[in-house]
UniProtKB/TrEMBL annotation:
<dbReference type="Pfam" id="PF01494">
    <property type="entry name" value="FAD_binding_3"/>
</dbReference>
<keyword id="KW-0560">Oxidoreductase</keyword>
<feature type="domain" description="FAD-binding">
    <location>
        <begin position="327"/>
        <end position="397"/>
    </location>
</feature>
<dbReference type="GO" id="GO:0071949">
    <property type="term" value="F:FAD binding"/>
</dbReference>
<dbReference type="InterPro" id="IPR036188">
    <property type="entry name" value="FAD/NAD-bd_sf"/>
</dbReference>
<protein>
    <submittedName>
        <fullName>FAD/NAD(P)-binding domain-containing protein</fullName>
    </submittedName>
</protein>
<dbReference type="InterPro" id="IPR051104">
    <property type="entry name" value="FAD_monoxygenase"/>
</dbReference>
<dbReference type="GO" id="GO:0016491">
    <property type="term" value="F:oxidoreductase activity"/>
</dbReference>
<feature type="domain" description="FAD-binding">
    <location>
        <begin position="7"/>
        <end position="179"/>
    </location>
</feature>
<keyword id="KW-0274">FAD</keyword>
<keyword id="KW-0285">Flavoprotein</keyword>
<dbReference type="InterPro" id="IPR002938">
    <property type="entry name" value="FAD-bd"/>
</dbReference>
<dbReference type="GO" id="GO:0044550">
    <property type="term" value="P:secondary metabolite biosynthetic process"/>
</dbReference>
Amino acid sequence: MHSPRFRVAICGGGVGGLTFAVALSQYPDIIIDVYEAAQSFHEIGAGVGMFTRAFKVLRKLGADVEQHLLQHSSSGWTEEFVPIIKSRKSDQPVGTELFELRSKGHLMRFHRAHFHSVLLSHLPSTCTTHNAKRLKSYTQPTDCSRNSPITLTFTDGSTAMCDILIGADGIKSAVRSCMLRELAESVEPGEKEFVLSCIKPVWSGVTAYRTLVSAEKLRARYPDHRILREHTQYMGKDAYFLAYPIALGKYINFAGFTLQRDLVETVYEADGGTSRPSFKGKANNGWVSELTAEQFVEPFKDLEEDAQCILECVERGTLWAVHTVKTLPSTNFGRVALLGDAAHAMMPFQGSGAGQSIEDAYLLATVLGHKATTLETVPRALAIYDKLRRPFSSDVALRSRLTGQQCTFQVDVPLHELGDAMAKNWEWAWLTELDDALEEAVKLVEDGSSVII
Ligand SMILES: Cc1cc2nc3c(=O)[nH]c(=O)nc-3n(C[C@H](O)[C@H](O)[C@H](O)COP(=O)(O)OP(=O)(O)OC[C@H]3O[C@@H](n4cnc5c(N)ncnc54)[C@H](O)[C@@H]3O)c2cc1C
């Protein structure tokens, strides 16, 4: 056993936090604690898709992790160009196929619970997990070059210590809130207000409808329905949905969306307010409501017949008010950094939010794990992470928003050119790799000079 180089606390055990913990397992001299607010580690009953760029990062976690993940995906690994999503013009009684998106490599699709359980089962022995630990706040020494620890305070009144704190605590991140308050104290007075304005997430004007449909039920009614075989987007003005088989064909993952451009960055009102249809679902919290089948299918009732066959099989579902995080002025301060949705929660239209948290996690583990990084140089390592990841994830967020507009015909592009426009905006997810950023990160860590910008 090596003597520990430093103790990393990860706040949040979602996709990003657990990927980071597994990625850090390559460095046995780093002690890891994962603090998760929930009583147990779990994921919602929905699907998650990974494009080639994100899945290539997961492959770097080791052959065991890759094999284990592949056992839960209906698609094998390939780097050939393959059809991934059929897109239909569905805002008419009989829809028409508009185009088929092709990507280099499959869109790897998983049940979230399976994906999460694979990461959990590969946590390193250097990692201790703590459930029912909701972080309230932290304090770090004002002079980070001094080696005194960061103190974490949880809502149950308990405390813990660490050398480095990583906020992987999702869109409502407590770490982001504390970190931006610290940052606000260090910037010019004129910038303070902007920094503080980034703490709270904003509503994107998007509501997401999520459920799993029983493939058996659909097959019994419509044995040849396309959705049993292929990922399809049923596109319509203002409302559309996409669906695809997951869990080796047992379920159809359904993700539907309504977009109201005029309500972007407004405050979401759970009772519907006056400016949009009211959802009478049972609210779990301000942003998520349980819906009956009738409530769930309502926004999609004008879509084509083929879509109605799927909607007929819906039994219940949840409605999510999709919030986003503004592009932050920084994702690090001192020995604290943010990753995943805590740093850049984005609109879900490119199916890439989890992929971006995986990329964050791997690059962050690379800079922290590098043997040149010591407790004294951690702030610099985190600044390198910020420099290489923040612009990229911000760009993905913009691209994702554009995809949503394309899928609801809110763009000024002729229908026959929409497929090419969509592919061009999305191909970063299968034509590019994280490797260049990883190489650059290692170069900057090894260079050791104080200048990184
Ligand atoms: C409809 C929809 C479909 C999507 N589909 C896809 C897709 O196909 N592909 C894709 O890549 N992405 C997709 N996304 C985005 C993806 O779900 C998120 O980007 C991803 O889950 C973010 O992971 P995370 O680990 O950063 O945060 P989270 O998954 O939110 O995890 C945060 C964790 O932190 C814990 N936590 C919160 N607060 C605290 C606290 N104070 N203390 C301790 N723990 C705390 C939470 O309990 C949770 O376990 C979709 C999103 C939506 C809304």
